[in-house]
Specification:
This protein is α+β, with helices and mostly antiparallel strands. 40% of the residues lie in helices and 23% in strands. It is built from eleven helices and twelve strands. The strands form three sheets. It has a five-stranded antiparallel sheet with strand order 7-6-5-4-8. Strands 10-11-9-12 form a four-stranded antiparallel sheet. Strands 1-3-2 form a three-stranded antiparallel sheet. α1 crosses α4 and α3 runs antiparallel to α4. The protein is elongated. It starts with a helix and ends with a helix.
Length: 334
Amino acid sequence: MAIAKAERLMNLALCLLGTRRPLSKRELRESIEAYVEASGRDRSAASGSEKGAAAASDDSFNRMFERDKDDLRELGLVIETVESLDGEVGYLARRDSNRLPPITLDAEEAAALGLAAKVWQQARLAGAASGALQKLRAAGLPEDVDPYEAHGALEPRIPVHEAAFEPLMLACRDRRPVVFDYRKANAAQPGTRHVEPWALECWRGHWYLAGFDRDRGAERVFRLSRITGRVRSRGSGFTEPVPDVVTVRETVASWAGESADRSARIRLRADAGYPLRAKATAVRELGDGWDELDIPYGHGLDAWLVEFGPDVVVLEPAELRADVLDRLRAVAGG
């Protein structure tokens, strides 16, 4: 149905843009195949006299046409309504009213676009980024400006290796619920999640999805590298409103102890745990291949420490040590 409507809207837009004079509803109804087919179906489905069937078909067409006209106007098409001398109403979309102005970019603006496109050259959006720049070139991008020209020794990259990125990006754009299998840090087997996806964001080299978890009835953030299997779409719409601001980075940062106001003391093998060492506020050598670290303690630190397995021993506080042990027992128990 969505494809049929899109085709109908496109044909209506082409008719309105291609005419030199206003077209009446009757002329549009006879010119667009989708309207002709719909009128035939309405006449066949209507019961009663032929006159009643024709009236029902006319009412159905009028409603469809008004909806289509409103949809095209919402998409930005300027449709004029013109009344002729005999009182008949016609419609047209003048090309000069629906033509975008020439795109003019100076060297700095073109360089900014080129830099943004370079970010995605190693990701799944590389084709879209290159295609956008080609369209800008065709629309008037200065010939003496190369958007891909290097403007510094450092070039940005956003790596996207997870297969879940593209279907989740499309689901966020189209507001489609999804289902996927997700492996938590303290679980041996993945569990099924039903999620209304809101936004994707990259934080410290990892991609995260924020959305509404239907099973838990609350907002959740998921790391894409922990999604296993295929992301499946669900046809039903969202049940919860999308927030105006989705704080993915802030949520993940709080899990990693970025906003912590406490400190934890751990033992760490001397040749392991470099991400922990980068966060440590103090490091003391204990000998025998172990070091003692003071690290910020915030929500989710227990899940992060579990990832280092036998290389980490929590010394204090006691509640953090207990949480880590509970997670390790859960993993060991399968």
